[in-house]
Amino acid sequence: MYTSLLIEKDPVYAEQLAGLLKKSQLFAHCHVSLSGIDGLLNFTKFPYDIIFVSLPLSDISGLDLIRTMSNLQVCIIVISDTVEEAVSCYELGVVDFLKRGFSYERLIVSINRAFNALNRQSNRIQLPDQNIVQTEKSHFFKIGRKIEYFSLDDIIYLEGYGVYCKVHLEKSYVISNIRLSQLASELRNKGFIRVHKSFIVNTSKIKRIDSRYVSLLNELKIPIGAKYRVVIKSFMESFVPGQKQPKVKAPSLNVV
Q1: Cβ distance 102 to 77 under 8 Å?
Q2: What is the pLDDT of residues 66-81, one digit of tens each?
Q3: Please, which residues bridge with residue 97 across strands?
Q4: What is the C-alpha to C-alpha distance for residues 23 and 6, in angstroms, rounded to an integer?
Q5: pLDDT tens, 161-196?
Q6: How far apart are CA 147 and CA 66, in angstroms?
């Protein structure tokens, strides 16, 4: 399933458009921004597949916004009352231009054009350096249109974020296009443990564990989910004195 962002200043029209996108059943999520600035902020936080920009915007130049987003290789569909800016939009690389009043069928045609463009981009996805090899202490994460390499020692914990996952580092985080449940399986033998339906923690970053929380080295408290208490119990029982890091039975991490 794909994700989309709709930037539309009129809340009534935005609701109508969001309803059409939901009706299509082609998107896992459709976020709505009522201003260009808010849309740009959302765009920097989430790896959207398709962005719908409705012109004109109330706060910033629509063409400037499209220019900024198109430089980052995202599929953009423009909606406008007039076709005066259509040429300029196409020159900026938008995949389609819709004149307001379009039919549902025309919208589906536009979405399909965007999907085709996404498929072409996926065939050119930027891969990591071939000299970098994934090991037990490293992992590749899909970040937007790229696959990036991370040392697992740099990861504090992972947080479910809808169909995405927040990868929390020491001073920042990135959003990966992958579900937490998939990462729970991929990291099961790499020193990570799932303690809640929304959280996986790096066992080397654990400072203390009580009946309700796992406290990490940065004093952050991660809640322990009821169905994961058996995982925590197994983790604590498998601790071997004299070793830097407890041993975790792989099957225990497969709780979803």
Answers
A1: no
A2: 988 876 667 999 999 9
A3: 78
A4: 15
A5: 877 888 999 888 888 878 888 888 888 788 899 999
A6: 24
Q: Report residue 59 as tokens.
A: 């706060």
Give DSSP secondary structure letters for 162-207: TTEEEEE-SS-EEEESS-HHHHHHHTTTTTEEEEETTEEEEGGGEE
Q: How far apart are CA 62 and CA 85, in angstroms?
A: 10
3-class DSSP state of 232: helix
Tell me the pairing of strands 213-216 and 96-99: unpaired
Sign of CA dihedral 88, 90, 94, 99: positive
pLDDT at 3: 85
The superfamily CATH assigns to domain 138-254 is LytTr DNA-binding domain (2.40.50.1020)
pTM over 0.70: no
Instruction: Indicate the domain borders of the chain.
Output: 2-122, 138-254
Structure token digits, residue 229:
């208490």
User: Is domain 2-122 given the CATH code 1.25.40.10 in the classification?
Assistant: no
| Residues pairing with 196 in the sheet | 199
Q: What pairing do the DSSP bridges indicate for beta strands 75-80 and 50-55?
A: parallel
- Whether residue 65 contacts residue 85, with contact meaning beta carbons closer than 8 Å, is answered with no
